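Entry 14. Structure prediction run on the chain below.
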Amino acid sequence: MPPGSRRHTASGRSPQGVAARPSLGVVGGMSEQRAWEVAEVLGASVQPSCDHLDEARVTAPAADGPPGCEDCLRIGTRWVHLRECLVCGHLGCCDSSPGQHAYAHAHAQSGHDLARSAEPGEDWAWCYADEVFLRPAG
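Output returned:
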């Protein structure tokens, strides 16, 4: 698959560049400025956009969440990397994992297009619908 494809980028490669349109996040019903923006594609003549940034609600990883992919834990399979839905907090496995549960969740649940990396030290997100990298605003 080409470098810009969903399978390649959603598997864990980090974005580069600066972004454009921020989205507000919500924690415990309180809005905060922890926003996401579309990451610039360096050297591209037309920059990507995302129509789903307003879906983001979950802004802090759940401290009491499951220790791994919710679906893999339920059926007894393994995962490679974890992705957290920015709408409901569902923790699923990446596209490099056999179950690809984050992708399945995004496509099974209407309006759940955004997921962030739940890997330590990574601070990026992905829009499954628009197939674009997101980075923290600011």
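The chain has one domain: 6-136.
Filed with the rest of this week's runs.
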